[in-house]
Amino acid sequence: MRDLFGAELRWFQHIEETAHRVFRRHGYGEIRTPILEELDVFKRSVGESSDIVNKEMYQFTDKGGREVVMRPENTAGVVRAAIQHKLLASNDPALFYYIGPQFRYERMQSGRYRQFWQIGAESFGVATPESEAESLLMLHSFLTDLGLKSLVFSINSVGTPESRPAFHAAFRAFFADRSEQFCEDCHRRLQSNPLRVLDCKNENCQKALTGHPVLTDHLDEASARHHARLKVLLTELALPFEENPRLVRGLDYYTRTAFEVLSSDLGAQSALLGGGRYDGLIKQMGGPEVPGFGWAIGLDRLAMVLQQVQGEAPQQAPAMLIPLGERAATEALKLARRLWDAGAALQLETRGGALKKAMASANRNGIQTVLILGDGELDGGTITVKHMATGEQESWPLGEVAARLAAIRLGLRDLPS
Ligand code: AMP
To answer: What's the CATH architecture for 319-409?
Structure first.
């Protein structure tokens, strides 16, 4: 678990602001659920065969003797809340998004944290491929607004609980023929949830899977039609996609569409996020029979990708006002107030003291424009401006500072100010 501050947190804020803007545009409403949920919420949703529930949960007994868990993901909590507050009607869409910290007792490895952040969207009440296309379009706008370019949807259909036994039978026969090549975990997975074998990270298991039976060959007719229609829609919308017969996602509750978004913005193509349809989940958790589709993206990873692709997030306040002497300090407070009220982003040096010290601190903090106000400037009704990148210096009339600052900020990326 780590502290967030500085450039990394500025990327987080930028991502969160983009999410709020894009998701609201699609009619999704934010929902915030508690970090602690009862253990049962995850047992009944994520599933006891999943690694998350098996190995990774921060779980404890509270002072009232309840078994509680620090949420490892947010879909289960959102579904729990939607049921509890009767936000679900069977044929009425209910669209939610969330942004918040999640907790998993992960093994230490780079980019995986025990407290990490997710942004996700859930669309309840509609079972059509069109609702999936809508959600994927929203996701695509979100990622492209953030500046990511080479995005590909990787999709599969995991069918329905009714159609899956046909696949299971074919897969068990395939597994039996080469069972010694699979790891111990896969033997266990074959019993609890055979789909999980497709998802095994072990290289030998991935090799042993060569030529495995494919889920989409064993779909019921309605799931096959659904899958075909989604592909038509993605093609019509020019959303690049590819089929991945091993994509099953790590959770037990997916039905029909499962997907990931691949990006090669960081060189080798890798998955940025995933999600899918979970038509049985809400009923399984004690709610009405309402379908759902959703996805979640790791904010930590996304911030890292953006930082690497686009460089450091610029300073929130790229300008600094440095007064010299008491008279200038008073006038600087008044000037800064006018500039802030006009929307300028600016840090005010309030320590007093030597210009050299203030300039050094401006340098350290990546300030781009320094405004210097001394007695000479005050008498002349001007301010001295130093552009840190070039070292160039000029004089601005005091009355034009707001407009001129606004003008140089136009060249900056539109980051949180
Ligand atoms: P999952 O819920 O496992 O499907 O993961 C969804 C998103 O959360 C992915 O984009 C992951 O990058 C991110 N994620 C999952 N676990 C962690 C973790 N321990 N640290 C950082 N990000 C994570």
So the answer is: 3-Layer(aba) Sandwich (3.40)
